[in-house]
UniProtKB/TrEMBL annotation:
Keywords for the protein's UniProt record, in alphabetical order: Membrane, Transmembrane, Transmembrane helix
Organism: Lophiostoma macrostomum CBS 122681
The keyword Acyltransferase is annotated on this UniProt entry: no
Parts of the chain that traverse the membrane: 30-53, 73-95, 107-132, 138-160, 172-194, 214-236
GO cellular component terms, semicolon-separated: membrane
Protein name, UniProt field: FAR-17a/AIG1-like protein
C-alpha cells in the first residue's frame, strides 16, 4: 500500500466520519462530483489558455513570472482543490469509502486546511484586485475574460464550496496557517524583487510608496484575511444550522446512514462512520 494511504483501523473514529467533504446537503454525490470536476476543468483551461496565449504573443516572460503572483498561486490552488475534491467524491460514489478516509491523518488535516484556504483566499484576491489594482478598463476581450475568471469567478468557486458541501465550520486553528501562508507569500514577493528586479504588486513597492504606507497595506490585508475567515466560518455555521437543524437535510449519500448499537464496537465498527445497511 502506498505510504500516503492506509486503511481506517477498527474502533478508530475517522477524520471525516460522515463524509462531509465528499457529500452535499442538496446535491447527490454524483452531481457534486461532476460539478467539482467541471469547475476544476474550467480553472485548468483558463490557466493553460493564458500560457498558450502568452507563448504565441511573445509574452513568455509573463508566464515565467506568473508563480510570483498571489492571484495565480491561489487560482492553481482552486484548480487542484476542485480536482482532488472531485476525486474524493468520485471514490465515495464508487466504493462508499472516499480516498480521503484512507489517507494518513497528516494528509487529512492538510486537506482540511486546503479547504479553508480555498474559501478564504479568493475573497482576498478579489477585494485587493478591484480595490487597488483595477485600472478601470481592459485593453482586450482576452484580458477582460482572464481577469474576470481569476479575480471575480474565483470567488464564485469559494461561494460554491461554502454553500453546497456539508463541510463543518472552519476551525479557529486554521487561521494560523492562513496567516502563515500570507506571510510566506510576502517573503516571496520581496524575494522576487531581489532576484528579478520587479515588484509583483505596486502597493508593495517601497520605492514608490513610503514604508509606512506599505506597512499599512500589509496590515490591512492581514486584517481583511482575519475578517474574511470569521465571516466564512459563520456563514458555514449558518448553512449547517439552516440545512441540518431547520430543514432537516442530513445529506445526500450513496446509501442510507445506519443506526449504531452497543454491539457495533465488538464488530470493529467505529461510531459515527456511515456504512451501508
Amino acid at each position: 500500500m502506498p505510504f500516503w494511504k492506509r486503511a481506517v483501523p477498527s474502533g478508530e473514529t475517522s477524520f471525516d466520519a460522515t463524509f462531509r467533504y465528499e457529500t452535499s446537503w442538496i446535491l447527490p454525490p454524483a452531481v457534486l462530483c461532476l460539478a467539482r470536476a467541471l469547475l476544476s476543468l474550467y480553472a485548468f483551461t483558463t490557466i493553460f489558455t493564458i500560457f498558450g496565449y502568452n507563448g504565441t504573443h511573445k509574452l513568455s516572460e509573463a508566464s515565467e513570472h506568473s508563480f510570483s503572483y498571489f492571484t495565480n498561486l491561489t487560482y492553481w490552488g482552486l484548480a487542484f482543490y476542485f480536482l482532488v475534491s472531485a476525486m474524493h467524491t468520485c471514490t465515495y460514489c464508487l466504493t462508499r469509502t472516499p480516498l480521503l478516509a484512507r489517507w494518513t491523518r497528516p494528509l487529512q488535516i492538510a486537506h482540511g486546511i486546503f479547504y479553508s484556504t480555498i474559501v478564504v483566499y479568493p475573497w482576498i484576491v478579489t477585494i485587493v484586485y478591484w480595490a487597488l489594482l483595477y485600472s478601470g478598463t481592459f485593453n482586450s476581450a482576452f484580458s477582460a475574460w482572464t481577469n474576470t475568471s481569476q479575480h471575480a469567478l474565483n470567488s464564485v468557486y469559494a461561494v460554491f464550496e461554502i454553500i453546497f458541501p456539508r463541510t463543518a465550520p472552519l476551525p479557529f486553528l486554521h487561521l494560523l496557517p492562513i496567516i502563515v501562508i500570507l506571510a510566506l507569500y510576502l517573503a516571496l514577493a520581496y524575494i522576487t524583487y531581489a532576484t528579478e528586479g520587479f515588484f509583483v504588486y505596486s502597493f508593495l513597492d517601497t520605492k514608490r510608496n513610503s514604508s509606512g504606507k506599505v506597512a499599512g497595506y500589509i496590515i490591512g490585508i492581514l486584517v481583511a484575511a482575519i475578517v474574511v475567515f470569521l465571516i466564512v466560518r459563520y456563514l458555514i455555521m449558518l448553512r449547517v444550522w439552516i440545512t441540518e437543524e431547520k430543514l432537516g437535510k442530513s445529506g445526500k449519500f450513496v446509501h442510507r446512514e445506519r443506526t449504531y448499537t452497543d454491539g457495533d464496537a465488538e464488530k470493529g465498527v467505529s461510531p459515527g462512520v456511515v456504512t451501508a445497511k
